[in-house]
Amino acid sequence: MNLLRKLAFALATTTLLLAVSVMIISLFMIRIIGNEAHLKTELRNSGLYDAVATDLTSKISINTEEINSEDPIVQTALKDSLNSSTIRKFSEDVITSTFSWLRGDVATPSFTLNTKDLQPIFFESLTSQLKTRLEALPPCPTGVIPETTDPFTATCWPAGVSIDDQLATLTTELQNDTTGAFDTNNLSAKDITVTVNGQQQPYYQALDWLPTYYHWLTLAPWIAALSVLALIGLLVLLASPHEKGYKTAAIICAPIGLILVIAGSFIPQFTFLITNAQTAALKDNTFKDPLQTLANNLIHSTGSFLVIRGVLLLTAGVLLAALYIISSRQRRNKIRTGQLSRPY
């Protein structure tokens, strides 16, 4: 090789190492934070939606003349209306809309949660439970006026008083009294804000640069993969003899693949210990188990990702090494038979 060719070969070797690294890193980032389906699956399997629903239910306060949020019947009605399915649907709408914005499909994210829509579910659950309770009460003794006909506290039910009419009256009163328990305003993308230079802005305005970065992130693995193939071909052309290009590429791919396999197999074991210790220190038991499950699932997914990509790179390295061996033997055979002159 002349000097210029050697310099080009060294530059191509370094660039190949960089391209393989960029391909792995970009695929890793897309897998962990840039994959809509993966994010939804991990959140769904973590139990976090149940924890959020339980936490929100415990923080809703309804204290009127008719009901109290600490009553078990009211708690059940709140859980029925503000359940994990509601939280999950809204969260996945947010994720879907945000990724559509990142991909450039829409100018701004668009999602809405009208919490007033939860009221009919709340009232239906409440009246259903109260009706079951009242129908199970014994009739009040004849001629005795009960101390109360409050559906929540009555110990007997007077003859001739319609349970359905009583509950209908209660529902009407509650519709006027408990609207504060469910905010009647819609929660939309513009309501999720971040502080920039001391001013509140919708997150999609403050992060208006993010779709461009996301676009290049999604292209990076393809660009890097094509670059790897092109650089391997270039190494083969620049090498003298040409089969040494296969050897150089194999020396780059195989060790990186082996490192990824080892990292994917062993690093998660140590990470599990760290994340479990961190989540165990949480004082709020409501979120402790879901967050630990989410962290462990992400770590396991990351380990699997590294192992699979490592095996692919290791396989590519072995194939390149095999090409080097085959090409070298063919070259030696040609030299032995006189079809090719021995280099000096």
Number of domains: 2
Low-confidence stretches: none
Strand order of the largest sheet: 1-2
| Total beta-strand segments | 4
Order of helices and strands: HHHHHEHHEEEHHHH
Count of separate DSSP helical elements: 11
Question: Which structural class matches the secondary elements?
Answer: mainly alpha
Mean pLDDT over all positions = 83
Helicity, as a percent range: 55-70%
Task: Give the N-to-C terminal Cα separation.
Answer: 12 Å
Largest sheet: 2 strands, antiparallel
Strand content: under 5%
Cα gyration radius (Å): 33 Å
Give the overall shape: elongated
What can you tell me about this protein's structure?
Helix content is 70%, strand content 4%. It folds into two domains: 3-33 and 213-337, no CATH class; 36-206, no CATH class. A hairpin with a 2-residue loop joins strand 3 (193-196) and strand 4 (199-202). The mean pLDDT is 83. With 344 residues, the chain is mainly alpha-helical. The protein has helices spanning 3-33, 36-46, 48-59, 72-81, 84-103, 119-135, 163-177, 203-206, 210-238, 243-280, 285-337, and strands spanning 112-114, 186-188, 193-196, 199-202. It has eleven helices and four strands. Strands 1-2 form a two-stranded antiparallel ribbon. It has a two-stranded antiparallel sheet with strand order 3-4.
